[in-house]
Design brief:
By secondary structure, the protein is α+β, with helices and mostly antiparallel strands. The chain folds into two domains: 3-109, PX Domain, CATH 3.30.1520; 115-177, Roll (Ubiquitin-like (UB roll)). It has four helices and seven strands; from the N terminus they run E-E-E-H-H-H-E-E-H-E-E. The strands form three sheets. It has a three-stranded antiparallel sheet. Strands 4-5 form a two-stranded antiparallel ribbon. It has a two-stranded antiparallel ribbon with strand order 6-7. It is elongated and about 65 Å long. Residues 114-178 form the Ras-associating domain. It comes from Labeo rohita (Indian major carp). It is a peripheral membrane protein. Keywords: Endosome, Lipid-binding, Membrane. One of its GO terms (molecular function) is phosphatidylinositol binding.
Length: 178
C-alpha cells in the first residue's frame, strides 16, 4: 500500500474559517482528506502508545499562517510521515492507524455508518445472511460469519471470504480474496 499526498485544498469549516486539507491517496486513489490537526492527533496517540523512539518525525506546528511554499513543504513532510508509519510493521498494521484512516475515509466520502445485511454464499451452495456495519473491516465480517456458522475459533484461520459480483446474465465473478 503506497501513501502519497499529491495535493492540498483550502477548505472552509462550519464557522466559515479556512484551513488547508491534505488529500491522502492510497495506491494513487484519493482515500481521505484530513487537516494537519487530525494528523497531529494521530501522531500524539501513536507516541503515547508506542513511545517517542518508535515514531517517525512529524512536521512542527506553526504559530502564523503558512505561506504557499510552507504548505507545500508541510505536505511533503506529512507524506513522508505517513509513508514511514505505514512501512513500520508495528505502526502500519496497528488498529489505531487503520481506524484513523477508516474514520477519515468515512468523513471524506460522507459514508454513514449503518447496519446492513450481507449475503454470504458458502461453497456447498447454501447462503447465510449476517448483519454488519458499513464501517466494519474484513476481520469483523469474518467474525460475524464464523459466529453465524458456529465455526470453532481454531478453524477460523482456514476460512476465507471472497468478494463476488453478480453479472447481468445471472452469473457472477469472483473479484478477489479479502
Amino acid at each position: 500500500m503506497h501513501f502519497s499526498i499529491p495535493e492540498t485544498e483550502v477548505r472552509s469549516d462550519e464557522n466559515g474559517s479556512t484551513y488547508v486539507a491534505y488529500n491522502i491517496h492510497v495506491n494513487g486513489v484519493l482515500h481521505c482528506r484530513v487537516r494537519y490537526s487530525q494528523l497531529l492527533g494521530l501522531h500524539e496517540q501513536i507516541k503515547k502508545e508506542y513511545g517517542n523512539n518508535v515514531v517517525p518525525a512529524f512536521p512542527p506546528k506553526k504559530i502564523f499562517t503558512l505561506t504557499p511554499a510552507e504548505v507545500d513543504q508541510r505536505r511533503e513532510q506529512l507524506e513522508k510521515y505517513m509513508q514511514a508509519v505505514r512501512q513500520d510493521p508495528i505502526l502500519g498494521s496497528s488498529e489505531m492507524f487503520n481506524s484513523f484512516l477508516r474514520k477519515a475515509q468515512q468523513e471524506t466520502q460522507q459514508i454513514p455508518t449503518e447496519e446492513v445485511q450481507l449475503e454470504i454464499y458458502l461453497s456447498n451452495g447454501q447462503k447465510v445472511k449476517v448483519n454488519i456495519l458499513t464501517s466494519d473491516q474484513t476481520e469483523d465480517v469474518l467474525e460475524a460469519v464464523a459466529s453465524k456458522l458456529d465455526l470453532p475459533d481454531e478453524l477460523v484461520g482456514y476460512f476465507s471470504l471472497f468478494l463476488v459480483q453478480e453479472r447481468g446474465d445471472g452469473g457472477c465473478t469472483c473479484e478477489y480474496n479479502i
